[in-house]
Design brief:
This protein has 216 residues and is α/β, with parallel strands linked by helices. It has a single domain, classed as NAD(P)-binding Rossmann-like Domain (Rossmann fold), CATH 3.40.50.720. It is built from 5 helices and 10 strands, in the order E-H-E-E-H-E-H-E-H-E-E-E-E-H-E.
């Protein structure tokens, strides 16, 4: 059993990560700006107030934890785009305050920078709406930042090209920087199975200091 601090527990991905972690027996501290908005209750769930953009708040939330998970991102609407790269920098700054006692960091990433079979990247596809491109490039900037960090144990987990609520099958495939796609060329993952992959990484660390991705 691990002690997990979770930013973004109210979001599409974060809420699935929360459910999966509790189902597996972990202790979770959900760090939110407004605790009243998190209605989930569980004996192993603690809800506390915090701000992912404040390194001091990050350090306070992370202290004594085994893993810090950030599910903060732009997937829940255009208004969140501006927080993606700044939150990455704040998370690292907060963990640096804890020195050797800092927990691991697992951050939800984006699919835009993943390589496609034609050698391009997902964000090079024609017809993508501007707000989605902004989200993709913000996640790309955050990943570029993480790759400069050597004194914090970080992992960045990119979803498939399409992630949405669906079924928890427990099955998925992984890669590093290449998009995971099925035989039909489609790349997708349910938010539930993405959470499975993330908690598998919590329990069996295999990607410290790198990005990996999941899909069917």
């Amino acid at each position: 059993m691990s002690k997990i601090a979770l930013f973004g527990a109210n979001g599409t991905i974060g809420s699935r990560v929360l459910d999966e972690a509790l189902e597996r027996g972990h202790e979770v501290t959900a760090v939110v700006r407004d605790p009243a908005k998190l209605t989930r209750t569980h004996p192993r769930l603690t809800v506390t107030t915090g701000d992912v953009l404040d390194p001091a708040s990050v350090a306070a939330a992370a202290e004594g934890q085994d893993v810090l998970v950030s599910a903060v991102g732009g997937g829940d609407g255009p208004g969140h785009v501006a927080t993606i790269e700044p939150s990455a920098k704040s998370l690292v700054a907060g963990l640096r305050k804890l020195g050797d006692a800092a927990p691991r960091l697992i951050a939800v990433g984006g699919a835009g920078s993943l390589r496609t079979p034609d050698g391009k990247q997902v964000w090079d596809a024609e017809g993508l709406p501007e707000f989605l491109l902004q989200i993709m490039h913000a996640h790309g900037d955050a990943l570029d930042f993480y790759r400069t960090v050597s004194d914090v144990r970080w992992t960045n987990l990119s979803p498939a090209a399409l992630i949405e609520p669906g079924e928890r099958t427990g099955a998925y495939r992984t890669a590093l920087d290449d998009l995971v796609a099925g035989e039909d060329g489609g790349s997708r993952i349910s938010a539930e199975d993405y959470a499975v992959a993330l908690l598998d990484e919590v329990e069996r660390p295999r990607h410290i200091g790198e990005r990996f991705t999941v899909g069917y």
